[in-house]
Amino acid sequence: MSQSAQGPQALIAFDTDHIKKYVFGTSKLKEIRGASSRLDRLNRLQTRAIAESKKYGATTIFAHGGSALFLLDAGQAEPLGQAIQKLYQRESGGGASITYAIQPIPEYGTQDIMTARDLSGEIKMAQVLKLLRLRLKLAKDTLQVSLPARLPDPQQTGAQARKPEEVSSQERALQVHELEKREILALPSYVLFSPCSSCGVVYAQETRKDPDDPDEQEGLYCRVCALKRDEDEAVKSKLRNARQQVASRDQLTLWGRILRTLAEPTDTTNPLYTRPYALPEWINRPKDFHAFSTFAGKKDYLGLIYADADGMGQALDKMESLQAIQKFAKMVDDAVFAAMGDALRAHLPAPQEQLPFDILLVGGDDIVLVMPAAQAIQVAATLAERFHFYTQSKHTLSVGVVLAPLTYPFALQRELADETLKAAKKAGAEKKMRGASGLEQSHINFVVVAGNTSLSYSRVYESMHSRKLTQGEFYATMRPYPLPQFQWLLAQLRLGNEKRLGRSKLHQLRESILKIDRSKAATILEALALLRNCQEEEREFIKSLVREYDIRLTPLQQEKGTLFPWGLDGQRSTDEYSIYLTPLLDFIELYDFVS
């Protein structure tokens, strides 16, 4: 239909504000899951239902992963934006908000708008989409938080309140500043007011207790946290008939889709990934993070996986039509769920009564999973590999993994996972700039927490790196790993477990490697002394790990003698300045977590 027949058209883009802040606003598993499920329902189901209703008549380009894009009559765009903002405010109790931006579409004649690339006046659809993304970014950068549909004026109330377009940019900035201050400053305390038992920031409004958890004490909760718990309870009641959830095809909820992904494999050609989960009639999720001790095995460690697709923004910038964006968004969203299903089926046992994992966030291009540490590293590698497969080998996934004791504060573990993922994505971007392609761009990074000390990834990495003016640089790690190298490391870990390497000797070798601030000769002598005490088969196996990455390109490099436990990175080294590295520390740290 031509534009003149249906009136001017516009695009409206939505993006949820501070998703991680809302989902991980507390460290309680029930509220994290509830927040994630509520956001997914708001985004994937309710926003789309409102937009496609007779009132607005919008065409959905995509709606998932916290974002959405719709095509509709230009006159309906602003009312739709305000309606969705009110929906988020109401359904989250004010805990979540969403920002929108509108971009009118120039005249495009009688061509199909979904496939149109060239509009009037030599304007390209790609330019319209780029301008829309810029408008959305400016809206988020300026407002930071979602403002109400009408902004109050200090001098006016009630019917005199002005519309957003009637408020100056200076007044907006002042109001935003006030809203930001409310987020930073705690509410004043009063004798008769109690703070929320969970977030501890907002005043409590109601009491709650899980009827199915006799160990949980009754608590006082604010509206935001109470709604998260309500959502988790609603999901739990539906999981009491898990098979029915899988069979349901209409208005599929987040956990309904997760269960269907587990029960119905996407790839039916590979025997490793075609085994479906035999879901029982009644299925439970872990009630809290300590419940993972049931599956933890020899070490009471929890594995937190944080995965994010690489270069999605750059890929969207290349899209030249609405149809291309629609297909791309669906492919990425489907690939995230399919890859997650393959990884969980391959490495975690089918549940009897309780799932041996939990999914904290999934959709769009993000995945956050928790599970016993013994499976986390292998799940991470499979996740990255299968995502590449399901995107027709066009896109990659970076993964950060943190293995920490069950008693380690979850908030600290999540922050560490965030830093670990950022380092992996940075390494992948650098590899891409140097011309790497395919899975070489996909990087996996990890941190193993010992004890309850608060850590940062930068401090952990610095402790494994030393610069010596006369001897070069020494790296006690090879993190972050490109996926092919990480798969090699996993294979060596499995082989090492089969050989039953002595743990005490391995950990003595680890301590020797970490003394990288000493002279090179002292480290080598101590490591060789430890190696000599190993049995011959063990000794040859450990030496082979270092030889794999001992690359000597020039004649002067080849003349160097033994460097154990270091390998020479001949690609980055010169004859005047050497860079030494070793995978042994990474191997030893992961040895107890891969069977």
How would you describe this protein?
It is built from 20 helices and 16 strands. It is an alpha+beta fold and about 600 residues long. The chain is about 45% helix and about 15% strand. The protein has helices spanning about 5, 20-25, 30-50, 75-90, 125-145, 170-185, 225-240, 240-245, 255-265, 310-315, 320-345, 375-390, 410-435, 455-460, 485-500, 505-515, 520-530, 535-545, 555-560, 585-590; strands spanning about 10-15, 60-65, 65-75, 100-105, 205-210, 220, 300-310, 360-365, 365-370, 395-405, 445-450, 465-470, 470-475, 480, 565-570, 580. The strands form four sheets. The chain has a six-stranded mixed beta sheet. The longest helix is centred in the middle third of the chain and has 26 residues, at about 320-345.
Our count of helices gives 20
Helix content: 40-55%
**Alpha-beta classification:** alpha+beta
Strand content: 5-15%
How many strands, what sense, and barrel or not for the largest sheet?
Answer: 6 strands, mixed
Strands ordered across the widest β-sheet: 8-9-7-10-11-14
Low-confidence stretches: 145-161, 176-182
* Cα-based radius of gyration, to the nearest Å: 27 Å
> What is the approximate shape?
globular
Q: What is the CA-CA span between the terminal residues?
A: 60 Å
**Mean pLDDT, rounded to whole units?**
84
Number of strands: 16
